[in-house]
């Protein structure tokens, strides 16, 4: 009976210590996570990312408090940690792709090769980044389609961020005949450029003779605008230059076949 009483007292003491350590630890975790939450709210991270980081930190800290409390009352946590590690390893092997996407998502979030709202090009897709999630990134194309791309692919291959710079260059190529005067051609193109306010004066528009083709002379034009004006400028130039060439008698050559009839009497 005496030993039983001693056991009850010893168990009660350990339980009390465990409860105190647990309560104190939970209060500390609550204070830490509260500070972290306030810090995350001030960042420009995606809402989903903020929620995930906050929840992930809470789980880790609460688990750590429980392990410390168990260790305080004499329970060895080595075997528990070993079991958790083995389970994590098994899960890691089964979820390799998911883990790769998660890690890649963290790399994208913190290295910021692009952010929500940026215009990017990737594997034939072009559109605005709608959101950067833990496992995938969603972009909205010009056709109003939502494309979800696994984050591991975005970090493994080249991604073109069209919004990274303040301005974006629009490159165009036109072909004129060898009979047309280059001075007139350039004057006409500069006239078209000057009529569009979306085309910037700085950086200065450039016009070059870039190639001598079989059918004509290739003219390359560089103009600049803000990223959102890329397609309006491109389509404007393609249409207005053609109309201006027609008005000024500038010929755009194209491949054609000439047939000659041979006289049978010859």
Molecular structure report:
The protein is built from 7 helices and 8 strands. By secondary structure, the chain is α+β, with helices and mostly antiparallel strands. The protein has a 5-stranded antiparallel β-sheet. A 3-stranded antiparallel β-sheet has the order 6-8-7, with helices on one face. Helix 1 packs antiparallel against helix 2 and helix 6 packs across helix 7. The chain is rod-shaped. The relative contact order is 0.08. The model has no long low-confidence stretch (mean pLDDT 83).
What would you report as the Rg, rounded to the nearest angstrom? 34 Å
The number of distinct helices, counting runs of at least 4 residues, comes to 7
Give the integer mean of the pLDDT values: 83
Strand order in space, largest sheet: 4-3-2-1-5
CATH class of the largest domain, named: Mainly Alpha
SS elements, strand count: 8
- Biggest β-sheet: count, sense, barrel? 5 strands, antiparallel
Query: What structural class do you assign from the helix and strand content?
Result: alpha+beta
Please identify, by name, the CATH architecture of the largest domain. Answer: Orthogonal Bundle
Spell the H/E element sequence: HHHHEEEEHEEHEEH
The tally of structural domains comes to 3
Enter the CATH topology name of the largest domain: Helix Hairpins
* Low-confidence runs: none
% residues in beta strands: 15-25%
């Amino acid at each position: 009976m005496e030993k039983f009483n001693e056991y009850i007292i010893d168990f009660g003491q350990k339980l009390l210590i465990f409860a105190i350590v647990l309560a104190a630890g939970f209060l500390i975790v609550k204070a830490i996570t509260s500070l972290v939450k306030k810090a995350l709210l001030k960042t420009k991270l995606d809402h989903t990312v903020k929620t995930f980081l906050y929840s992930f930190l809470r789980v880790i800290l609460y688990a750590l408090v429980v392990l410390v409390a168990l260790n305080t009352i004499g329970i060895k946590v080595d075997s528990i940690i070993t079991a958790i590690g083995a389970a994590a390893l098994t899960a890691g092997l089964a979820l390799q792709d998911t883990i790769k996407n998660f890690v890649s998502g963290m790399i994208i979030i913190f290295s910021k090769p692009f952010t929500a709202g940026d215009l990017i090009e990737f594997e034939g897709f072009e559109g605005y980044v709608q959101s950067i999630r833990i496992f995938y990134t969603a972009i909205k194309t010009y056709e109003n389609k939502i494309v979800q791309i696994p984050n591991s692919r975005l970090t493994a291959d080249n991604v073109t961020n069209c919004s990274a710079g303040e301005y974006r260059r629009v490159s165009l190529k036109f072909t004129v005949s060898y009979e047309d005067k280059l001075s007139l051609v350039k004057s006409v193109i500069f006239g078209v450029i000057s009529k569009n306010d979306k085309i910037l004066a700085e950086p200065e528009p450039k016009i070059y003779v870039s190639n001598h083709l079989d059918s004509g002379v290739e003219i390359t034009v560089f103009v600049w605008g803000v990223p959102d004006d890329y397609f309006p400028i491109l389509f404007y130039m393609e249409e207005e230059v053609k109309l201006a060439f027609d008005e000024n008698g500038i010929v755009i050559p194209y491949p054609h076949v000439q047939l000659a009839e041979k006289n049978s009497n010859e």
